[in-house]
Amino acid sequence: MVEADFDEFVAVLDTVCSYGSKPMSASAKAVFFKALEPYPLSAVRVAFFAHLKDPVRGSFNPRPADIIAKICPPADVDALLDEAVTQLNRRRYGGDDVWSDPVVYWAAQRVGAHTMLNLGRELLVKRFGAALEAVRREGNVPPVPPAMAALPAPGKAVTDKATGRAHLATILAGCKGRSERSLSRTREALLPVADRPDAVAKLLPDSVLAYARGAEKGAQRSPRG
Q1: How many CB atoms lie within 10 A of CB 3?
Q2: Which of 39, 106, 154, 168 has its CA 20 to 30 A from that of 183?
Q3: Residue 9: which residues within 8 A CB-CB, separation 6 or more?
Q4: Residue 140: phi, psi to the nearest 5?
């Protein structure tokens, strides 16, 4: 909340306290507002009315801790931590990761994937729990982003050698100061895939394909005697 929310906050607080034991002083209201300042007014308003419906605490004036508990109910940190570790491992190794709540994903990201998968359990529970609370408090949690494609593990690549050489040649073709002999080798690597109709040729820039095809035509026009 911001200072401009204070009057509306007090109006809601006065309404809730009118059902309780006694009115709250002006200084107590100011302290109450300060304690709930990290949370958005919309969430605070909902929490106040949830307090009124509480069969145990609803008959008494709320305290800041009562409202915070309604905004951020205690979570089973251990269970959410297990979920986060499992889903991070799936994401890491190319599986389909499924998250019960984006808050869990972003809390894990705040801790860091390496820490999540390597830190001792006792310390990790505390750090992850603090991250969960921070992400919830800040609000406006974005959805879980799709996993980024990872490089294949050693020995698991499916690209053939000709295509691999062509991709490397594409990179080298843009380097300055190449010798004629080096450029000739680049052309040789590009030629086997330059005219292939499959997706491999589509991966190469048009300028590179033209470069390879032009070199081939030049060679045909000027055969060595």
Answers
A1: 8
A2: 154
A3: 1, 33, 36, 41, 44
A4: 50, 50
* Rounded Cα distance, 165 and 23, in Å: 79
The tens digit of pLDDT for each residue in 128-182 reads 988 998 888 787 789 999 887 666 666 666 666 666 666 666 555 555 555 555 5
CA distances from 62 to 8, 44, 136, 151 (A): 17, 12, 21, 54
Q: Are 129 and 77 in contact (CB under 8 A)?
A: yes
Place of tokens 């605070």: 44
Structure tokens at 12: 């809601």
Domain boundaries, the chain: 3-71, 77-138, 178-216
From CA 152, how far away is CA 106, in angstroms rounded?
26
Q: What is the dihedral of CA 154, 158, 161, 163, to 10 degrees?
A: -120
59, two tokens = 């008959």
Locate 73 and state its tokens. Answer: 């109910």
